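Hello Y.,

Per our agreement to keep a running log of every chain we model this quarter, I'm adding this entry. I've kept the format consistent with earlier entries: sequence first, then predicted structure.
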Amino acid sequence: MINLKARETKTLVAVHGWAGAVLGLLLYVVIVTGMAAVFSNEIKAWSGGLLGISDPLNQPLGAVLARLEAQTPEEFRDDLGLRATPAGNVHAFFHADETVNGVRRERGVLYEIGPNESVISRQEGLGNELAANDPHAALGRFYVDLHVRLHVPNPWGLILTGILGLAMLVAAVSGILMHRHLFRDIFLMRGRDRLVGLRDLHSVAGTWTLPHAFVLAFTGAYLSFAIAVALPMLAKIAFKGDVREMVTTLNGLNNVDARPAAIADIDRILSDARQRAGAPLMSAGWENRGRADSRITVFPAPRSGDLTAMRLIYNGSTGQLIRERPIIGLKPSWGASLLGLIGPVHFGNFAGWWSRSVWFALGAASAYVAWSGLNLWVRRRSNQRGWRGLGRATAWVGGGLPFAMTVAAAAYFASLPSLATVFWTPAAFLIAAALALIPAIVMRSVERVPPLLFGATGILMVVIPVLRTAVGGPDWNAALAAGQSAIPVMDGLVVLGGLVCVVSAGLSLRRREQTTFGAGAVMQSAE
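Predicted structure for the entry above:
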C-alpha cells in the first residue's frame, strides 16, 4: 500500500493523465506497430514470396561473387556488404563511399543471390534508397519504420519516438505511485460494461505489464536517442563527422596501408566464422578490398542459449582472424554486455518464437492500457467540446490503426505481382485511415466505432493468407521444403488473429450501450 497525501495524489493523477493525453495516441501507434515489429523478419520472409534456404550464408559464394564483381563497375568494387535476407537469400552490395553536402553515403550495385548461385535481381544506386525500394520487403519495412520513426524524416522521427519512450516511463512511474492499493488492484474487477469496469481493466492490465512497460520505455528511448543524437554527435566531435573512421577506430584497426594485396577466400572465412560462433551468420562487411589494410567483419547470430554474439574481424588479404570483439570495446566487459542486451530485450528476439509471442501479448496489453487510459481521461471531461474531439480521435486511432495496417498488407499482396508494393503499401494505409475517420466523425455512438473497425480488420486478416497464395506466394509444402517455417506459422497466426478480432468485436457490439460521454464517475485512486 502506498500512502500519499491527497494533494500529492492529485498532482500524480494530473502528471499521469496529461503525460498520456498529450502523447497517448502517438504512444498507442508506436506500441501497436511495435507488436508487428517483433515479427518483422518473419513478416518479411512470409510476405516476400522469394524462397531461399534457412542459412543463406552457409553456401559457396566465392565463385558467384567473383562473377558479379567482373560485371560491376570498377569504382564500386572497394567495399562489399553481404547480408542474409529473411527469405533465405543473400544481398551482395558492391559499393564505394561518396560525400554529398557533407553527408557520407554508400553508392554501388546490389545483387540478390538465391540458392545454387542464381542471381535474382540487380539494382544500382545509393544503399539506403535501394533498401527502401525493395518491393519484396516493403510490408515489413513499412511496419518497422512506422514503429521506429513514425515515418517522420531523420533525425526528428527518432527523437519523437525517444520522447514517447520517456513519456511512457513517466506514466508508468506515476501510475505506480498514485495507486493506494497496488497489489489489491492487480485482481480488482468490478464489471466490464460500465466506466468503473473500464477503469479496473486499465488498472489490472497496466499493473501486470509494468515491468514490460519499463523495459520497453527505457530501451526504446535509449535506442532512439543513441541513433539520432549520441552516435552522430560522437562522430562529429571526435572524428569530424567521419562515421567510417569512428567505426574503424573503435575496432582498434585505424592503420592505413593502401598497398595492393591479394583478396582472401571469402568461403573459407565464413566457414571459419560459423565454426567459431557456433551459430548461423547474419551479415559481413568487407572494407578496402584488394589493399593491405583490408578487413572483413562478420556478424553471427547469438549462439543457442546466449543473448549476444561476438563480432569476428579478419584480415581481408590473408584471411587470418585478427580478433573477436564485443559490441563495443576490444574486450568483453559489463558495459558491452549490458549494451548488447538492449536490442534483444526491446524486440524480444532472445528465445525464438516463444519470447516474441510473449512480447507480442505484453505489447497488446500495453496498447490497451494506453488506449483505455485515454478513454478514461476524455470521459471525465466529456462536457468540454475539445475533449469530446479527443474522444473521437481516440476511437478513430484505436480501431483505425489495426484496420489501416491490415489494409496495407492486403494492398501489398495485391500489388506484389506488378512489383508496385513500395507505392501501394503506404498509399493503402493512408486511404484506409481516411475511411476509418468517417464513422469516427459521423456516428453518434462513437463507442461502436472501434468494434466495427476491429470486425472489419478480422475479416480482412482471415482473407489475407488466401490472397497471398492467390498472387503466387509459396504454399506450405514448398516453404517447409525450403526450411521457411515462418510462412505457414504466419498464415496460421494471421487467421487466428482475425478470428479473435471478429469474435471480440461481435461480443463488444452486442453488449455496447449508446455512448454517453457524460457518464459521471467518482474519482478513483487508479485513475
